[in-house]
Amino acid sequence: MPVIVVMGVAGSGKTTVGAELAARLGVEYADADEFHPPANIAKMSAGTPLTDEDRRAWLTALADWVASHAETGGVLGASLLKRRYRDQLRAAGDVWLVHLHGDRDVLADRLRARTGHFMKVSMLDSQLADLEPLEQDEPGVTVDLAEQPATLVGKVLTEYARVSPRT
Q1: How far apart are CA 58 and CA 35, in angstroms?
Q2: For residue 35, what are the contacts with CB-CB under 8 A and spacing of at least 6?
Q3: CA-CA distance, 5 to 47, in Å (whole number)?
Q4: CA dist 97 to 2, 49, 91, 159, 164, Å?
Q5: Of 91, 115, 110, the residue nearest 8 (C-alpha)
Q6: Would you put residue 40 in left (φ > 0), alpha (ψ -120 to 50) or beta?
Q7: What does the pLDDT look like over 117-155, one tens digit per residue?
Q8: What is each CA distance from 96 to 9, 38, 87, 114, in whole angstroms?
Q9: Gap between the Cα atoms of 143 and 125, Å rounded
Q10: Ramachandran category for residue 14: left, alpha or beta (phi over 0 → left; psi -120 to 50 → alpha)
Q11: Is the per-residue pLDDT at 165 higher than 70?
């Protein structure tokens, strides 16, 4: 069973959708925010975007998690804004991507309403600038984040079942 990676910019609903997908599939869920070293969290908390170098250890830890779930499957919520980040995880194991995509204003409203998280609305534009949408050769689906989480999860599971008879 592949690891399903729910990706998108901050505020897209990765945690909400990812946790529900994992529950419905009966697999482990992991939030990529938990894999950041303290220095990355401090940098983002100060409103400074991460560089590729900052992300190196984080991506390695995510790839290790993917590899360790090759037999059982799992769901990982991770931004993975650039193709090369996704390729690094795909090299570690069987990965199927869910891109939560949507309107900037919806994302900004969600970030403003969120409390207790290091990601600030001021960093949204840098994430949107870095975002490289899924390409045709990447296994996965893009869905509209404005829909209700239960609807999104249903659509994702339907598409996953259609393209992946591995489950």
Answers
A1: 6
A2: 58, 61, 62, 65
A3: 25
A4: 10, 23, 13, 11, 12
A5: 110
A6: alpha
A7: 555 566 677 778 888 999 999 999 999 888 899 999 999
A8: 17, 28, 11, 28
A9: 20
A10: alpha
A11: no
Confidence (pLDDT) at 127 = 79
Q: Which residues are CB-neighbours of 154 under 8 A, at least 6 positions away?
A: none
Q: Which residue has the higher pLDDT, 138 or 167?
A: 138
Could you read off the pLDDT of 30-81 as tens digits, one per residue? 999 899 888 888 887 777 777 889 989 999 999 999 999 999 999 999 989 9
Amino acid at 15: T
Q: At what angle do helices 52-68 and 38-45 cross, to 10 degrees?
A: 130
How is residue 70 written in tokens?
């090759």
Paired tokens of 136? 């045709």
pTM to 2 decimals?
0.84
Q: What is the CA radius of gyration of the chain?
A: 15
Give SS3 for 75: strand
